[in-house]
Amino acid sequence: MSTVSTTSLEAGFKGQLVRPGDAPYDELRAVFNGMIDRRPALIARCSDAHDVAEAVRFARDAALPLAVYGGGHGVTGNAVCDEGVVVDLRPMKGVDIDPEARTCRAEAGLTWGELDAATQEHGLAVTGGRVSTTGIAGLVLGSGSGWLERKLGFTVDNLVSVEMVTADGQIVIASETENEELFWGTRGGGGNFGVVTSFVFRLHSVGPIVLGGMLMYPAPMAPAVLRNFREVMAGAPDEIGGGVALITAPPEEFVPEPVRGQPVVGVILCYAGPAEDGEEAMRPLREFGPPAMDMVQPMPYLAVQRLIDPGNQKGLRNYWTAEFLTGLPDSAIETICRYHLSKPSPLTQIVLMPGGGAVARVPDDRMAIGQRQAPFNLHILSMWAEPGKDNDNIVWTKEFAAAIKPFTTGRVYLNFIGDEGEDRVKAAFGPQTYARLQKLKDRYDAGNLFRLNQNIKPVRSTAG
Prior knowledge:
eight-stranded antiparallel sheet; alpha+beta; 15 helices; globular; single chain
């Protein structure tokens, strides 16, 4: 690896510069997806927005690849790069909450578990990631899907403003009244226009105790469970959030021993309202079957936010894809259930999340994120531990994706997919939104410095 001179950066940089050979280097360059093994020339551990600006200018002037590390959960591994500069936001974990105004300023190095813990001290929350170790920055910039979205909308629907470092090293604020077009594009356009260093959110009264948990059924019941879920969610109140997870029963004490290691169906539920109201609202789901296990109960919202953490451990090999579905006809259910039983890895998950509610009531052109009317969002998370099993798992994922295509809208939630090419990014936004995003890219990053993402390529430059 070539050595990068950092003399021009060191004078104004207050954080820590980590190079190959330094003690924390290997730990800091590791990301969630164990298939990614990249060796950056420099990891710039930033303490504030000014450090981020210094690092961005340094990478730009040295013509080095630039990656931005928030939580490192993105399956593409774009939080790190080979022979380039990693702007590491993880030291930036400030949280300022105004409980009276119900707003929160959160720095970009936070995880959802850390932010949730801070807001729940005041009985407040905003739609957040379903895995507590997910970084807030990447999830929000991709729109922000979570258990509360049917009640509160996507995270970006609750975004008041962002502080951002642009490609020229300037620190700007974007909101509904300042740099409005940039704010529009930031809400769903990913990290294409700059490095967001902090977010201001509107918060809502949620918890600290909610009705939530999981129902578990044996795999043969999966088609019936999905049909019931389809029918109930079509008329469900906004307060019911959740999804169906086709998984392998974990080797945990709460799982009966004969079931451990067997294919099962989990229905994950969270009621974003008074727990006593949720009992009646969830009855059509909880009484169906009945489930082999009903673990739905009043519990801390923080516990709901950690429900699927055990199945999403850092370091496993991951290959993901996703699709918005036009509906959930019986033939789609049959396809999903068939692939659940044929998956090569017991760690693999198939998660189906319902649309509707608050998400669907925001006009598609209000911000960059679109496809708000889709009734279901399907996420296929292939996970395994052995490098020798890469081909089996990738082939299965691609075959499953091809089989489900007849039931899809052609659009996709970008946070849920891997590196699937430029056409997939264009299709995710649709032609009009993508063209508008390209104009924004031309204005703020014509050189495509911020290209390690689901990239929106500028029109005026062929860089990157």
